[in-house]
Amino acid sequence: MDFTSDNAAGAAPEILEALARANGGTATSYGADEVTTRLQKRLSDVFEREIEVFPVVTGTAANALSLAALTPAHGGIVCHELAHVHLDECGAPEMFSGGAKLLTAGGAGAKVDPATFAAILDAYPAGVVHHVQPAALTLTQSTELGTVYSQAEIGALVEIARGRALHVHMDGARFANALVRLGCTPAEATWKAGIDIMSFGATKNGALAAEAVVVFNSDLAKDLAFRRKRAGHLLSKMRFLSAQLEAYLADDLWLRLARHANEMTDRLASGLREVAGTSLQTSPEANEIFVRLPSAAIRRLKEAGARFHPWPMPGDGAEGRTLRLVTSFQTAPEDVDRFLGILKS
Ligand SMILES: *Cc1c(COP(=O)(O)O)cnc(C)c1O
User: Which CATH class is domain 254-344?
Assistant: First the structure.
């Protein structure tokens, strides 16, 4: 009953098998190998357009490189106040961009609120030398609170961004979980909605360690090869990184894994709704649940060996505390049911 995070899960067997296959013989180094070439084609098929892909090892690198490609050193990057780029990347976006400033916006469910976004742009007028110049908007899909932006919500934000010539980045550490919930195509969820560049996550959904910067707007790709090398993410044995991503996409493995993770969240959430004294703090739309539970229930769960992170939220107190529960491609339905059984007992 490990609900600490989706990166507590191991790697999918199909991905490990692909690594073993990639291990046969020799291959050209630094990404000039056949697997990486095939990956570029495969992702172009998946996204129904020519893309450029830059595999990297962490999501932090994918985000920081993407944002650096969008933003001059005197630029501003608008993000949600709970965004991973703001809270969990130790200043990497600021460092990789040479000092761009993150401008944080509020919004329910960890989604950037359009009015707040517009107000930030007004507060940093174009051409005024005293202010950073907003250059990028970054959206996390699915969000840090396990919600999913609708196509309409993304459209509204993109329209505001375009009005000030900002580029738009998507942090897709959990993109597959959002995509299967939206039920649209990868193209519709990204470039057709106005996304210029994305961090395409795979690690949390079954890869060993593989993420990628995927560039839809080719103007933004020209410096990325150099930026990635400088950041230390141009792997000499790139085929092993590309092989993970190729296997992730093959036969829709990524979508199957994400669908399972989401189904486990749905199962858990519907069980939690039946337990007196619990209250869901957000609407679980991907593979994360934020739920307030009575302290005695939390103690019982811990004693039974359940694992999760406390996630303090406004309103926590003597009545109960909020936990974050994350399901993954590996979560077993039996573990979900055992967890619920303990709560109901
Ligand atoms: C996990 C995660 C990342 C990537 O984190 P790394 O630990 O650097 O791989 C990026 N964005 C979000 C929203 C995440 O949850």
Answer: alpha beta
Q: pLDDT tens string for the chain (345 positions)? A: 999 999 999 999 999 999 999 998 999 999 999 999 999 999 999 999 999 999 999 999 999 999 999 999 999 999 999 999 999 999 999 999 999 999 999 999 999 999 999 999 999 999 999 999 999 999 999 999 999 999 999 999 999 999 999 999 999 999 999 999 999 999 999 999 999 999 999 999 999 999 999 999 999 999 999 999 999 999 999 999 999 999 999 999 999 999 999 999 999 999 999 998 899 999 999 999 999 999 999 999 999 999 999 999 999 998 899 999 999 999 999 999 999 999 998
Please answer whether residues 198 and 59 qualify as being in contact, where contact means their C-beta atoms are separated by less than 8 angstroms. Answer: no
The answer for 311, left when phi > 0, alpha when psi is -120 to 50, beta otherwise, is: beta
From 56, 60, 145, give the residue whose CB has the most ligand 1 atoms within 8 Å, as the site to mutate. 60
* 140 CA: nearest ligand 1 atom: 13
Q: Please tell us whether the domain made up of 12-252 is placed in CATH 3.40.640.10.
A: yes
Can you tell me the distance from the alpha carbon of 116 to that of 122, in angstroms, rounded to the nearest whole number? 10
Q: How far is the CA of 83 from the centre of ligand 1 (A)?
A: 10
Domain boundaries for CATH 3.40.640.10 within the chain = 12-252
Range(s) within the chain of domains with CATH label 3.90.1150.10 = 254-344
